[in-house]
Amino acid sequence: MNQDYIDWLYGLSAPMVALNKECGASYTSPFFFPEDKYTDLKKDWDIDSRETLLAMVFNMIDNGHAPALSNHYFMYPRLSAIDWLKYTEKHTNYQKVLLELVEKSYLECGVGGIRSWDYARMGYILRNGTTNKFITEQEALWIFYRIALRAQYYYSSWQSYYSGWFIGYQYWKSLSNKENLEILRCELCRSSQVWTMNKLYNNEDSPHHHLPWYIEIEELEKPESLMEYDWS
Q1: Which residue stretches of the chain are H helix?
Q2: Contact 102/69 with Cβ under 8 angstroms?
Q3: Which of 97, 143, 160, 216 is geometrically suited to a Cys-Cys bond with 155, CB 3.0 to 4.6 A?
Q4: DSSP symbols for 108-136
Q5: Whole-model pTM above 0.85?
Q6: Which of 63, 66, 50 minimizes the C-alpha distance to 229?
Q7: DSSP label of 12
Q8: How far is it between the farthest Cα atoms of the chain?
Q9: Is residue 203 a contact partner of residue 21, using CB atoms and an 8 Å limit?
Q10: Each residue of 141-172: pLDDT tens digit?
């Protein structure tokens, strides 16, 4: 496995690195915070062991926040304007606000929607789990490899992958406003581009500056230590 490929895999957590860059986060180290000997994942993630980490990662990669919007992102390009309107009218007022988000953001993130919000966050967990010795680097890389297959399937570029994360971030931040639809609509429609340009696109270490999106995803053998988990 060459270093560029490893850097590409770790690059899947790049938005989380940008969010934590001032705290010492790295784009390329196996350890999210290379200077740290241990990262407390209990407070925010309720992770304090190998078992709780792997349970979280294997669940959230495919069943995190993205499923709430995935079908809408799937349907949007497949329906005519009038059929999309009919599709929208069948939903609740809350869902209609989310459908507005899908309609306005589809060109940025494509059918992948906010899946990268879940992928990048789980990359964050994996790399901190390596620091904490909950998992090995080999185990983390194999899981990253499986995330990579999903990422390349759903996204067409680093930019669309990043956009999915930023839209997912806005969605997550807005969940506390579910009862006030006008506030929710305003929160969801806030532009992510300023944050993107300042924190990720302009950082010379960010993977999109030196690694192409479409690289050959090398097949990695599942470690024996993960065979008990029926996930791939």
Answers
A1: 3-11, 14-20, 42-45, 50-63, 67-75, 81-89, 93-109, 115-131, 137-154, 158-174, 181-188, 193-196
A2: yes
A3: 160
A4: HHGGGTTHHHHHHHHHHHHHHHHHTTSS-
A5: yes
A6: 50
A7: T
A8: 56
A9: yes
A10: 999 999 999 999 999 999 999 999 999 998 99
